[in-house]
Amino acid sequence: MIRKFLLLLLLLLFGLPLAALPRIAYIGMSVLVPGSGELALGKTNRGALLLGSDLLALTGFWATERQKDDLIRSYKQYAQTYAGVPITDNDSYYQHIQQYMSSAEFNQFQELMARNYFLIYLYDPNGYASYIAANTYSPEEAWNWQSDLHFKHYRALRSKTQKTKMYQNLSLGMLILNRVVSAIDVTFISSDRKRQTPIYFSVFGEDGIMLNYRLDF
């Protein structure tokens, strides 16, 4: 994936007469590969910075995608082995398995809630029966964790999966942000190459970089 990304960048930079391109072409380059429009317009430092950050975000996105798939496979197999859970694609099912030691405990809670609402408050036996049929698990879907230790380990796997999904979403957000920033940047650069652009980067803390936007009145 990274090789294709670099090959595309080289084609954009050296395969076209860049000096003669219209502004929309530089914007398109930046949307496709952040930093490429800046590099084509001679803004080497900012182009390299945007390109580097995009490569890091892209690497992070694919790394977390593989890790997420491995974790999902792991917690499904773990639940099957230690709780008797049939493997399925229903995430809400695995969420309930994370919250209750057994399907009997889950069903009991649902029955208690439904009894209070449908039988005591509404006195609707048909509504109660329909709710129970739709919101409890059958014997084929039943689970029962062998021990509290297995239950806690499964919850830890699920928690790690959720964190990995969050990191992947952050990487995706960075990929989108890079394209927006680069497209806006080359819009200002291509309109007047001598004018300083309002978007710039500055050092933040000991090892951070801050994106800034200058607005003149």
Radius of gyration: 27 Å
Record field, number of beta strands = 2
Name the poorly predicted regions. 14-18
Shape by Cα distribution = elongated
| Total number of domains | 1
Question: Terminal Cα separation, in Å?
Answer: 44 Å
Percent helix, as a range, is: 55-70%
Q: What topology, given as strand order, has the largest sheet?
A: 1-2
Oligomer: single chain
Task: Explain how this protein is built.
This protein has 217 residues and is mainly alpha-helical. The protein has one domain. Helix content is 70%, strand content 6%. It contains 8 helices and 2 strands. A two-stranded antiparallel ribbon has the order 1-2. Strand 1 and strand 2 form a beta hairpin. Helix 2 runs antiparallel to helix 8 and helix 6 packs antiparallel against helix 7. The longest helix has 44 residues. The radius of gyration is 27 Å and the shape is elongated. About 2% of the residues have low confidence.
Q: Could you list some keywords that capture this structure?
A:
two-stranded antiparallel ribbon; mainly alpha; 217 residues
How does the SSE layout of this entry go?
Layout: H1 2-14, H2 23-32, H3 36-40, H4 44-83, H5 91-99, H6 103-121, H7 125-135, H8 148-191, E1 199-204, E2 208-213
Antiparallel strand pairs: 1-2
Helix pairs in contact: 2-8, 4-8, 6-7
Give a brief description.
The protein is mainly alpha-helical and 217 residues long. The protein has one domain.
